[in-house]
UniProtKB/TrEMBL annotation:
It is found in: Cytoplasm. This is EFMT1 methyltransferase. Keywords: Cytoplasm, Methyltransferase, Transferase. It catalyses: L-lysyl-[protein] + 3 S-adenosyl-L-methionine = N(6),N(6),N(6)-trimethyl-L-lysyl-[protein] + 3 S-adenosyl-L-homocysteine + 3 H(+). It comes from Helopsaltes ochotensis (Middendorff's grasshopper-warbler). One of its GO terms (molecular function) is nucleic acid binding. The gene is Eef1akmt1. GO terms for biological process: methylation. GO terms for cellular component: cytoplasm. Pfam families: N6-adenineMlase. Its main location: cytoplasm. The lineage of its organism: Eukaryota, Metazoa, Chordata, Craniata, Vertebrata. HAMAP family: Methyltr_EFM5.
Amino acid sequence: KMDDDDDVPQLSSHTLAALQEFYLEQQQREGMKTSQGFNQYSIGSIEEDWQLSQFWYSEETASCLAKEAVLAAGKGGRIACVSAPSVYQKLKEQDGEDFSTCILEYDRRFSMYGEEFIFYDYNHPLDLPENLLPHSFDIVIADPPYLSEECLQKTAETIKYLTKGKILLCTGAVMEEQAAKHLGVKMCKFIPKHSRNLANEFRCYVNYASGLD
């Protein structure tokens, strides 16, 4: 008798283990959300959606970038996070500090953050609400969703519209020339890490004297 299992595609034990770990993590996170003291701003409170090319930073990286943004923005400063929700979440954890922030993001799940959420599609870089005045942010942190010059160029229009001057860009190391060309930013020594390792080498770029070197 033929073995019925032959034509069923088998997942490798490695893949299975990884999947199980992923589901377990997910259950644990869901559990944390319902337990008390859950912070809606903590990283992972909204799951990554890989179809939207989302990859959250590690806790350390998000904290480091948030601290840098607060320092760069100065007292009472305004910080815009463009497609960088994990930095926004870290900034919000420091509630009561002397700065304000908003998040420009394509993923409407972030609308749970209320008025600070601005729907943003990089294909329409200047399609922004009227109350978002030009050059009204002390620093803009941006992480374009795709490693393409087109995406960087369009996101750059948004960044230049929003910022009074300071820019903190996170993107692949391969984008160094384009980043300089479109935004006049230089690569820092600081290497951002993600909560899941990405294949592309990722770097930070700034156009001011930052604490990231």
